Amino acid sequence: MTFKSTNPFNGEVIATYKEHTNTEINTILVNAGNAFEAWRQVPIKERCSLLLNAANLLKKNVDRYAETMTLEMGKPISEAKGEINKCAWVCEYYAENAEHFLADELIETDASESFVSHEPIGAVLAIMPWNFPFWQVFRFAAPTMTAGNSALLKHASNVFGCATHIEEIFKEAGYPDGVFQNLFIDHDKIETVIAHDSVQAVTLTGSGRAGKSVASLAGKYLKKTLLELGGSNAFIVLEDANMDQAIETALNARMMNSGQSCIAAKRFILVGDAYDKFLPGFLEKTKSIKNGNPMDDSTEIGPLARKDLADELHKQMKTSLDMGAKLEIGGVQDNAFYEPTILSGVKPGMPAFDEETFGPLAAIIKARDKEEAFELAAKSPFGLGTTIFTRDTKTARKYINKVPDGAFFINELVKSDPRLPFGGTKNSGYGRELSREGIHEFINKKTVYIK
Question: Whose C-alpha in 36, 136, 141, 371 is 20 to 30 A from the C-alpha of 128?
Fold first, then answer.
Protein backbone atom coordinates (compact mmCIF):
# COMPACT_ATOMS: atom_id res chain seq x y z
CA MET A 1 0.00 0.00 0.00
CA THR A 2 1.07 3.57 -0.72
CA PHE A 3 -0.10 6.45 1.49
CA LYS A 4 -0.64 9.90 0.01
CA SER A 5 -0.19 13.23 1.71
CA THR A 6 -2.59 15.63 -0.02
CA ASN A 7 -2.87 19.39 0.38
CA PRO A 8 -6.53 20.02 1.33
CA PHE A 9 -6.34 23.61 0.04
CA ASN A 10 -5.74 22.69 -3.60
CA GLY A 11 -5.94 18.89 -3.74
CA GLU A 12 -2.32 18.46 -4.85
CA VAL A 13 -0.41 15.37 -3.72
CA ILE A 14 2.55 16.49 -1.63
CA ALA A 15 4.30 13.17 -1.11
CA THR A 16 3.76 9.43 -1.01
CA TYR A 17 4.90 6.93 1.61
CA LYS A 18 5.20 3.17 1.34
CA GLU A 19 3.60 1.05 4.01
CA HIS A 20 6.03 -0.88 6.17
CA THR A 21 6.16 -4.57 5.33
CA ASN A 22 5.56 -7.25 7.96
CA THR A 23 9.31 -7.84 8.13
CA GLU A 24 9.99 -4.13 8.62
CA ILE A 25 7.29 -3.92 11.30
CA ASN A 26 8.83 -6.80 13.21
CA THR A 27 12.29 -5.24 12.99
CA ILE A 28 10.95 -1.93 14.33
CA LEU A 29 9.21 -3.68 17.23
CA VAL A 30 12.30 -5.72 18.15
CA ASN A 31 14.40 -2.55 17.98
CA ALA A 32 11.95 -0.77 20.28
CA GLY A 33 12.29 -3.55 22.86
CA ASN A 34 16.07 -3.65 22.66
CA ALA A 35 16.35 0.14 22.78
CA PHE A 36 14.18 0.24 25.89
CA GLU A 37 16.50 -2.07 27.81
CA ALA A 38 19.43 0.31 27.25
CA TRP A 39 17.44 3.55 27.44
CA ARG A 40 15.93 2.76 30.83
CA GLN A 41 19.47 2.71 32.27
CA VAL A 42 20.33 6.18 30.97
CA PRO A 43 20.41 8.65 33.90
CA ILE A 44 17.40 10.93 34.12
CA LYS A 45 19.58 14.03 33.84
CA GLU A 46 20.86 12.83 30.48
CA ARG A 47 17.34 12.08 29.23
CA CYS A 48 16.29 15.58 30.23
CA SER A 49 19.29 17.07 28.44
CA LEU A 50 18.29 15.33 25.21
CA LEU A 51 14.75 16.64 25.63
CA LEU A 52 16.12 20.17 25.78
CA ASN A 53 17.99 19.45 22.54
CA ALA A 54 14.66 18.52 20.95
CA ALA A 55 13.09 21.74 22.24
CA ASN A 56 15.89 23.79 20.71
CA LEU A 57 15.51 22.04 17.35
CA LEU A 58 11.78 22.78 17.36
CA LYS A 59 12.38 26.46 18.03
CA LYS A 60 15.17 26.64 15.48
CA ASN A 61 13.03 25.13 12.69
CA VAL A 62 9.59 26.57 13.45
CA ASP A 63 8.95 27.79 9.90
CA ARG A 64 9.98 24.53 8.26
CA TYR A 65 7.87 22.29 10.47
CA ALA A 66 4.88 24.65 10.43
CA GLU A 67 4.91 24.71 6.63
CA THR A 68 4.72 20.92 6.41
CA MET A 69 1.87 20.90 8.91
CA THR A 70 -0.12 23.51 7.00
CA LEU A 71 0.44 21.87 3.64
CA GLU A 72 -0.60 18.46 4.93
CA MET A 73 -3.72 19.28 6.95
CA GLY A 74 -4.63 22.91 6.20
CA LYS A 75 -3.99 24.55 9.58
CA PRO A 76 -3.48 28.35 9.22
CA ILE A 77 0.29 28.92 9.19
CA SER A 78 0.18 31.29 12.16
CA GLU A 79 -1.47 28.58 14.27
CA ALA A 80 0.98 25.97 12.98
CA LYS A 81 3.90 28.08 14.21
CA GLY A 82 2.20 28.41 17.59
CA GLU A 83 1.82 24.64 17.76
CA ILE A 84 5.54 24.06 17.16
CA ASN A 85 6.45 26.50 19.92
CA LYS A 86 4.02 24.76 22.28
CA CYS A 87 5.81 21.48 21.57
CA ALA A 88 9.08 23.12 22.59
CA TRP A 89 7.38 24.29 25.79
CA VAL A 90 6.25 20.78 26.77
CA CYS A 91 9.79 19.50 26.18
CA GLU A 92 11.25 22.23 28.36
CA TYR A 93 8.62 21.60 31.05
CA TYR A 94 9.50 17.93 31.42
CA ALA A 95 13.21 18.59 31.11
CA GLU A 96 12.85 20.82 34.14
CA ASN A 97 10.43 18.70 36.18
CA ALA A 98 10.86 15.03 35.24
CA GLU A 99 13.54 14.25 37.81
CA HIS A 100 11.29 15.56 40.58
CA PHE A 101 8.21 13.77 39.24
CA LEU A 102 10.05 10.44 39.04
CA ALA A 103 11.83 10.64 42.38
CA ASP A 104 11.17 7.92 44.95
CA GLU A 105 8.16 8.66 47.17
CA LEU A 106 8.97 7.92 50.81
CA ILE A 107 6.12 6.46 52.86
CA GLU A 108 6.28 5.88 56.60
CA THR A 109 5.39 2.33 57.67
CA ASP A 110 6.68 -0.15 60.23
CA ALA A 111 9.58 -0.89 57.88
CA SER A 112 13.04 0.54 58.34
CA GLU A 113 12.42 2.20 55.00
CA SER A 114 9.57 2.02 52.50
CA PHE A 115 8.98 3.94 49.32
CA VAL A 116 7.48 3.88 45.83
CA SER A 117 9.96 3.56 42.97
CA HIS A 118 8.92 4.82 39.53
CA GLU A 119 10.15 2.59 36.71
CA PRO A 120 9.51 2.58 32.93
CA ILE A 121 7.53 -0.31 31.46
CA GLY A 122 8.68 -0.76 27.85
CA ALA A 123 7.66 0.39 24.40
CA VAL A 124 4.49 2.51 24.25
CA LEU A 125 2.48 2.67 21.03
CA ALA A 126 0.91 6.05 20.23
CA ILE A 127 -1.91 6.22 17.69
CA MET A 128 -2.22 9.89 16.88
CA PRO A 129 -4.58 12.11 14.83
CA TRP A 130 -4.00 14.72 12.16
CA ASN A 131 -5.58 17.80 13.77
CA PHE A 132 -2.59 18.74 15.95
CA PRO A 133 0.03 16.59 14.23
CA PHE A 134 3.02 17.81 16.26
CA TRP A 135 1.44 18.70 19.61
CA GLN A 136 -0.45 15.44 20.10
CA VAL A 137 2.79 13.50 19.55
CA PHE A 138 5.03 15.64 21.74
CA ARG A 139 2.61 15.77 24.65
CA PHE A 140 2.83 11.96 24.64
CA ALA A 141 6.50 11.52 23.74
CA ALA A 142 8.10 14.10 26.03
CA PRO A 143 6.94 12.54 29.32
CA THR A 144 6.81 8.94 28.14
CA MET A 145 10.34 8.80 26.76
CA THR A 146 11.78 10.88 29.59
CA ALA A 147 10.33 8.33 32.01
CA GLY A 148 12.57 5.75 30.29
CA ASN A 149 10.16 4.13 27.83
CA SER A 150 10.69 3.76 24.11
CA ALA A 151 8.03 5.13 21.75
CA LEU A 152 6.30 3.91 18.60
CA LEU A 153 4.21 6.33 16.54
CA LYS A 154 1.40 5.26 14.26
CA HIS A 155 0.42 8.68 12.95
CA ALA A 156 -2.56 9.57 10.78
CA SER A 157 -1.67 8.69 7.20
CA ASN A 158 -2.34 12.19 5.84
CA VAL A 159 0.41 13.70 8.04
CA PHE A 160 3.27 11.28 7.53
CA GLY A 161 5.46 14.25 6.58
CA CYS A 162 4.99 15.61 10.10
CA ALA A 163 5.75 12.16 11.51
CA THR A 164 8.97 12.05 9.49
CA HIS A 165 10.03 15.43 10.89
CA ILE A 166 9.35 14.28 14.45
CA GLU A 167 11.45 11.14 14.10
CA GLU A 168 14.25 13.26 12.62
CA ILE A 169 14.04 15.71 15.54
CA PHE A 170 14.63 12.99 18.12
CA LYS A 171 17.48 11.48 16.12
CA GLU A 172 19.18 14.86 15.66
CA ALA A 173 18.65 15.62 19.36
CA GLY A 174 20.80 12.59 20.18
CA TYR A 175 18.25 9.95 21.18
CA PRO A 176 19.59 6.41 20.67
CA ASP A 177 18.33 4.39 17.71
CA GLY A 178 15.03 2.67 18.43
CA VAL A 179 13.90 4.96 21.24
CA PHE A 180 11.47 6.75 18.90
CA GLN A 181 10.28 5.14 15.66
CA ASN A 182 7.52 5.68 13.13
CA LEU A 183 5.25 2.93 11.94
CA PHE A 184 3.83 3.62 8.48
CA ILE A 185 0.98 1.15 8.69
CA ASP A 186 -2.77 0.95 8.16
CA HIS A 187 -5.31 0.07 10.84
CA ASP A 188 -5.29 -3.61 9.95
CA LYS A 189 -1.76 -3.94 11.36
CA ILE A 190 -2.54 -2.41 14.74
CA GLU A 191 -3.32 -5.72 16.43
CA THR A 192 0.02 -7.17 15.30
CA VAL A 193 1.82 -4.26 16.95
CA ILE A 194 -0.19 -4.34 20.18
CA ALA A 195 0.30 -8.09 20.50
CA HIS A 196 4.10 -7.86 20.31
CA ASP A 197 5.98 -8.50 23.55
CA SER A 198 7.91 -5.23 23.26
CA VAL A 199 4.73 -3.15 23.45
CA GLN A 200 3.45 -2.66 26.99
CA ALA A 201 0.88 0.11 26.56
CA VAL A 202 -1.14 2.06 24.01
CA THR A 203 -2.21 5.68 23.95
CA LEU A 204 -4.72 6.89 21.40
CA THR A 205 -6.12 10.28 20.54
CA GLY A 206 -9.01 10.01 18.13
CA SER A 207 -12.64 9.08 17.67
CA GLY A 208 -14.78 7.10 20.07
CA ARG A 209 -15.05 4.30 17.52
CA ALA A 210 -11.26 4.07 17.23
CA GLY A 211 -10.90 4.22 21.00
CA LYS A 212 -13.28 1.33 21.59
CA SER A 213 -11.54 -0.77 18.96
CA VAL A 214 -8.04 -0.15 20.32
CA ALA A 215 -9.12 -0.59 23.95
CA SER A 216 -10.67 -3.92 23.01
CA LEU A 217 -7.46 -5.08 21.32
CA ALA A 218 -5.30 -3.88 24.19
CA GLY A 219 -7.54 -5.68 26.67
CA LYS A 220 -7.18 -8.87 24.68
CA TYR A 221 -3.42 -8.73 25.20
CA LEU A 222 -3.49 -7.19 28.71
CA LYS A 223 -1.85 -3.93 27.65
CA LYS A 224 -2.61 -0.67 29.43
CA THR A 225 -4.44 2.07 27.51
CA LEU A 226 -4.93 5.82 27.66
CA LEU A 227 -7.73 7.23 25.50
CA GLU A 228 -8.27 10.88 24.60
CA LEU A 229 -11.37 10.88 22.43
CA GLY A 230 -13.99 13.29 21.12
CA GLY A 231 -15.67 16.17 22.86
CA SER A 232 -18.63 18.53 22.72
CA ASN A 233 -17.65 21.13 25.29
CA ALA A 234 -20.23 23.47 26.73
CA PHE A 235 -19.52 27.21 26.89
CA ILE A 236 -21.91 28.76 29.41
CA VAL A 237 -22.49 32.52 29.47
CA LEU A 238 -24.29 33.98 32.48
CA GLU A 239 -26.14 37.30 32.42
CA ASP A 240 -23.47 39.09 34.45
CA ALA A 241 -20.58 38.06 32.19
CA ASN A 242 -18.20 40.50 30.54
CA MET A 243 -19.80 40.06 27.11
CA ASP A 244 -16.94 41.48 25.06
CA GLN A 245 -14.53 39.10 26.72
CA ALA A 246 -16.96 36.17 26.43
CA ILE A 247 -17.57 36.80 22.71
CA GLU A 248 -13.88 37.14 21.86
CA THR A 249 -13.03 33.98 23.80
CA ALA A 250 -15.96 32.09 22.30
CA LEU A 251 -14.78 32.89 18.79
CA ASN A 252 -11.32 31.47 19.52
CA ALA A 253 -12.76 28.52 21.41
CA ARG A 254 -14.91 27.45 18.46
CA MET A 255 -12.98 28.54 15.36
CA MET A 256 -9.35 27.82 16.30
CA ASN A 257 -7.78 25.17 14.05
CA SER A 258 -10.78 25.68 11.74
CA GLY A 259 -12.93 24.16 14.47
CA GLN A 260 -11.08 20.83 14.35
CA SER A 261 -10.36 20.31 18.03
CA CYS A 262 -11.73 17.84 20.53
CA ILE A 263 -11.63 20.49 23.28
CA ALA A 264 -13.21 23.24 21.18
CA ALA A 265 -16.33 24.83 22.64
CA LYS A 266 -19.17 23.47 20.53
CA ARG A 267 -22.36 24.09 22.53
CA PHE A 268 -22.88 27.71 23.60
CA ILE A 269 -25.42 27.83 26.41
CA LEU A 270 -26.68 31.34 27.03
CA VAL A 271 -28.62 32.06 30.23
CA GLY A 272 -31.62 34.42 30.15
CA ASP A 273 -30.75 37.92 28.93
CA ALA A 274 -27.24 36.77 28.00
CA TYR A 275 -28.77 35.38 24.80
CA ASP A 276 -29.64 38.81 23.39
CA LYS A 277 -26.38 40.33 24.65
CA PHE A 278 -24.10 37.60 23.30
CA LEU A 279 -25.54 36.42 19.99
CA PRO A 280 -25.42 39.67 17.94
CA GLY A 281 -21.79 40.29 18.84
CA PHE A 282 -20.84 36.66 18.21
CA LEU A 283 -22.46 36.81 14.77
CA GLU A 284 -20.63 40.02 13.94
CA LYS A 285 -17.27 38.61 15.02
CA THR A 286 -17.87 35.43 13.05
CA LYS A 287 -18.62 37.42 9.89
CA SER A 288 -15.23 39.11 10.18
CA ILE A 289 -13.20 35.88 10.13
CA LYS A 290 -10.87 35.75 7.15
CA ASN A 291 -10.98 32.51 5.15
CA GLY A 292 -8.37 31.68 2.55
CA ASN A 293 -5.04 30.09 1.74
CA PRO A 294 -3.70 28.68 5.03
CA MET A 295 -0.16 29.59 3.96
CA ASP A 296 -1.14 33.28 4.16
CA ASP A 297 -0.24 34.74 7.57
CA SER A 298 -3.50 36.72 7.64
CA THR A 299 -5.75 33.68 7.11
CA GLU A 300 -7.74 32.76 10.20
CA ILE A 301 -9.60 29.72 8.87
CA GLY A 302 -8.38 27.35 6.19
CA PRO A 303 -9.90 24.21 4.74
CA LEU A 304 -10.78 21.20 6.82
CA ALA A 305 -8.19 18.47 6.59
CA ARG A 306 -10.21 16.40 4.10
CA LYS A 307 -13.34 16.88 2.01
CA ASP A 308 -15.16 13.99 3.69
CA LEU A 309 -14.85 15.85 7.00
CA ALA A 310 -16.62 18.85 5.49
CA ASP A 311 -19.25 16.50 4.03
CA GLU A 312 -19.95 15.03 7.47
CA LEU A 313 -20.18 18.48 9.11
CA HIS A 314 -22.63 19.66 6.43
CA LYS A 315 -24.78 16.58 7.01
CA GLN A 316 -24.90 17.29 10.76
CA MET A 317 -25.84 20.90 10.05
CA LYS A 318 -28.61 20.00 7.58
CA THR A 319 -30.11 17.37 9.88
CA SER A 320 -30.15 19.85 12.77
CA LEU A 321 -31.96 22.36 10.54
CA ASP A 322 -34.51 19.72 9.56
CA MET A 323 -35.12 19.11 13.26
CA GLY A 324 -35.86 22.77 13.99
CA ALA A 325 -32.58 24.63 14.40
CA LYS A 326 -32.16 28.00 12.68
CA LEU A 327 -29.24 28.93 10.43
CA GLU A 328 -27.92 32.31 11.58
CA ILE A 329 -24.85 32.46 9.36
CA GLY A 330 -22.76 30.17 7.15
CA GLY A 331 -23.74 26.65 6.19
CA VAL A 332 -21.85 26.77 2.87
CA GLN A 333 -19.41 24.06 1.79
CA ASP A 334 -16.86 24.29 -1.02
CA ASN A 335 -14.94 21.01 -1.27
CA ALA A 336 -12.86 20.87 1.94
CA PHE A 337 -13.71 24.44 2.92
CA TYR A 338 -16.60 25.04 5.32
CA GLU A 339 -17.87 28.52 6.03
CA PRO A 340 -17.99 29.49 9.73
CA THR A 341 -21.50 28.54 10.77
CA ILE A 342 -23.81 29.41 13.66
CA LEU A 343 -27.04 27.55 14.43
CA SER A 344 -29.52 28.86 16.99
CA GLY A 345 -32.46 27.05 18.57
CA VAL A 346 -30.34 23.93 19.05
CA LYS A 347 -31.80 21.34 21.42
CA PRO A 348 -30.94 17.87 22.72
CA GLY A 349 -31.63 15.25 20.10
CA MET A 350 -30.12 17.29 17.26
CA PRO A 351 -26.71 16.29 15.87
CA ALA A 352 -25.41 19.79 16.67
CA PHE A 353 -26.12 19.09 20.34
CA ASP A 354 -25.59 15.35 20.73
CA GLU A 355 -22.64 14.69 18.41
CA GLU A 356 -19.14 16.06 18.05
CA THR A 357 -19.14 18.62 15.24
CA PHE A 358 -15.56 18.66 14.01
CA GLY A 359 -15.39 21.96 12.15
CA PRO A 360 -16.39 25.64 12.41
CA LEU A 361 -20.00 25.14 13.53
CA ALA A 362 -21.32 26.71 16.74
CA ALA A 363 -24.57 25.55 18.35
CA ILE A 364 -26.48 28.24 20.27
CA ILE A 365 -28.71 27.04 23.11
CA LYS A 366 -30.89 29.17 25.37
CA ALA A 367 -31.29 28.30 29.07
CA ARG A 368 -33.79 29.73 31.56
CA ASP A 369 -31.36 29.88 34.48
CA LYS A 370 -28.03 28.60 35.81
CA GLU A 371 -29.52 25.30 36.92
CA GLU A 372 -30.87 24.49 33.46
CA ALA A 373 -27.61 25.66 31.88
CA PHE A 374 -25.57 23.13 33.84
CA GLU A 375 -28.15 20.40 33.24
CA LEU A 376 -27.78 21.02 29.50
CA ALA A 377 -23.99 21.13 29.77
CA ALA A 378 -23.97 17.72 31.47
CA LYS A 379 -26.50 16.27 29.00
CA SER A 380 -23.80 14.98 26.67
CA PRO A 381 -22.14 11.62 26.03
CA PHE A 382 -18.80 13.47 26.12
CA GLY A 383 -16.86 14.85 29.06
CA LEU A 384 -13.74 16.80 28.15
CA GLY A 385 -14.40 20.24 29.58
CA THR A 386 -16.77 23.08 30.41
CA THR A 387 -16.29 26.84 30.27
CA ILE A 388 -18.38 29.35 32.23
CA PHE A 389 -18.26 33.11 31.85
CA THR A 390 -19.40 35.19 34.82
CA ARG A 391 -18.16 38.02 37.02
CA ASP A 392 -19.26 36.04 40.09
CA THR A 393 -16.43 33.52 40.27
CA LYS A 394 -17.30 32.64 43.87
CA THR A 395 -20.71 31.33 42.82
CA ALA A 396 -19.24 29.68 39.70
CA ARG A 397 -16.99 27.55 41.92
CA LYS A 398 -20.11 25.97 43.46
CA TYR A 399 -20.95 24.45 40.07
CA ILE A 400 -17.60 22.70 39.52
CA ASN A 401 -19.06 19.30 40.39
CA LYS A 402 -22.28 19.81 38.40
CA VAL A 403 -20.68 18.66 35.14
CA PRO A 404 -18.63 15.44 35.30
CA ASP A 405 -15.98 16.61 32.83
CA GLY A 406 -12.22 16.45 32.91
CA ALA A 407 -11.87 20.24 33.11
CA PHE A 408 -13.79 23.29 34.35
CA PHE A 409 -12.56 26.68 33.17
CA ILE A 410 -13.96 29.96 34.52
CA ASN A 411 -13.65 32.98 32.19
CA GLU A 412 -11.28 31.17 29.80
CA LEU A 413 -11.54 28.61 27.02
CA VAL A 414 -10.69 25.00 27.81
CA LYS A 415 -7.11 24.39 26.70
CA SER A 416 -4.19 22.06 27.31
CA ASP A 417 -1.22 23.24 29.35
CA PRO A 418 1.90 21.17 30.18
CA ARG A 419 1.51 22.14 33.84
CA LEU A 420 -2.05 20.80 34.16
CA PRO A 421 -3.46 17.28 33.77
CA PHE A 422 -5.47 16.80 30.59
CA GLY A 423 -8.12 14.20 29.81
CA GLY A 424 -11.80 13.41 29.85
CA THR A 425 -14.64 11.28 31.16
CA LYS A 426 -17.52 9.32 29.63
CA ASN A 427 -17.11 8.93 25.84
CA SER A 428 -14.20 11.36 25.90
CA GLY A 429 -11.96 8.61 27.25
CA TYR A 430 -9.85 8.01 30.34
CA GLY A 431 -6.38 8.57 31.69
CA ARG A 432 -4.47 11.82 31.97
CA GLU A 433 -1.75 13.43 29.88
CA LEU A 434 0.59 16.29 30.82
CA SER A 435 1.74 17.50 34.26
CA ARG A 436 2.86 14.99 36.89
CA GLU A 437 -0.03 12.67 36.04
CA GLY A 438 1.08 12.45 32.42
CA ILE A 439 4.56 11.16 33.16
CA HIS A 440 3.09 8.68 35.66
CA GLU A 441 0.66 7.10 33.17
CA PHE A 442 3.21 4.69 31.70
CA ILE A 443 5.38 3.70 34.63
CA ASN A 444 5.44 0.86 37.13
CA LYS A 445 4.86 2.18 40.62
CA LYS A 446 6.90 -0.36 42.52
CA THR A 447 6.51 -0.72 46.27
CA VAL A 448 9.86 -1.14 48.05
CA TYR A 449 9.88 -2.36 51.66
CA ILE A 450 13.05 -2.71 53.70
CA LYS A 451 12.94 -4.30 57.17
Answer: 36
Q: Which of 228, 300, 339, 356 is catalytic?
A: 228
Q: Are strands 113-120 and 105-106 parallel, antiparallel or unpaired?
A: antiparallel
- At residue 21, the 3 state secondary structure works out as coil
Close Cβ partners of 308 (under 8 Å, ≥ 6 residues apart): none
Q: Which of 48, 87, 162, 262 is catalytic?
A: 262
Known catalytic residue: 228? yes
Say if residues 126 and 101 touch (Cβ distance below 8 Å). no
Q: Does the annotation count 262 as an active-site position? A: yes
Distance CA 207, CA 415 (A): 19
User: Which pTM does this prediction carry?
Assistant: 0.97
Q: Judge if 2-229+428-450 and 233-417 fold alike in CATH terms.
A: no
| Class of domain 233-417 (CATH, top level) | alpha beta
Domain boundaries, the chain: 2-229+428-450, 233-417
Q: What is the CATH number of domain 2-229+428-450?
A: 3.40.605.10
**Alpha helices in 355-441, H assignment, sequence order:** 370-378, 393-397, 435-440
Asked if 299 and 291 touch (Cβ cutoff 8 Å), the reply is: yes
Q: Taking Cα atoms as reference points, which of 305, 286, 283, 285 lies closest to residue 294?
A: 305
Note whether 196 and 29 are within 8 A (CB): yes
Per-residue pLDDT tens, the chain, 451 aa: give them: 899 999 999 999 999 999 999 999 999 999 999 999 999 999 999 999 999 999 999 999 999 999 999 999 999 999 999 999 999 999 999 999 999 999 999 999 999 999 999 999 999 999 999 999 999 999 999 999 999 999 999 999 999 999 999 999 999 999 999 999 999 999 999 999 999 999 999 999 999 999 999 999 999 999 999 999 999 999 999 999 999 999 999 999 999 999 999 999 999 999 999 999 999 999 999 999 999 999 999 999 999 999 999 999 999 999 999 999 999 999 999 999 999 999 999 999 999 999 999 999 999 999 999 999 999 999 999 999 999 999 999 999 999 999 999 999 999 999 999 999 999 999 999 999 999 999 999 999 999 999 9
Give the contacts of 418 (CB within 8 A, at least 6 positions apart).
Answer: 89, 90, 93, 94, 139, 434, 435
